[in-house]
Amino acid sequence: MKEKNTTELENVLGSTHLKAFETFCSENKESMLEECRGFSCYVKELLKEKGLSQQLVFLKADIPERYGYKLLSGEKKTKQRDIILRICYAGEFTVEETKRALGKYEMPGLYVKIPRDALLILAFRERPGSVLDVNSLLKKHGFEPLRTSGIQE
């Protein structure tokens, strides 16, 4: 079932009676906010759906495994958007899934008017290879590569 945006959900709720509240919640579960709807849960759910282990994603993202686990558990926080982009790319996220993950991490999404972001959007769509291949592509076009986990805040 497709996730509904707020307006769609409000329209459904507008024609829902109090007695049908439980049905409304169960039929719109994917669109409702739950306690575990933050970055960590979102990423873990997507990786599970895609059949990817966290360990493999951290390896493919070229970030230290312990650091990756700490990021996903919430024990560590990063201010480096590139780390989140690495995890999303290695986790085979779509552009939309990546934008959502960035938002859940309270970071700006990929924005088509920023040339580096536009190139990253294309890389997420076309999947030119590994994170290292994406970095080569970024360098080729004069952009900074996706940074690795230097500062761990």
Largest sheet: none
Number of strands: 0
CATH fold call of the largest domain: 434 Repressor (Amino-terminal Domain)
Please tell me what the overall shape is.
elongated
CATH architecture of the largest domain: Orthogonal Bundle
Structure class:
mainly alpha
What is the CATH level 1 assignment of the largest domain? Answer: Mainly Alpha
Percent helix: 55-70%
Plain-language structure description:
It is a single chain. It is built from 9 helices and no strands. 20% of the residues are buried. It is elongated. Helix 4 packs across helix 6. The chain folds into 2 domains: 1-32, no CATH class; 39-140, 434 Repressor (Amino-terminal Domain) (Orthogonal Bundle). The longest helix is centred in the N-terminal third of the chain and has 12 residues, at 39-50. The mean pLDDT is 90. It has 153 residues and is mostly helical. The protein starts with 5 loop residues before the first helix and ends in a 13-residue tail after the last helix.
Summarize the entry for a quick read:
The protein has helices at residues 6-14, 21-27, 39-50, 54-61, 65-73, 81-90, 95-104, 115-126, 131-140.
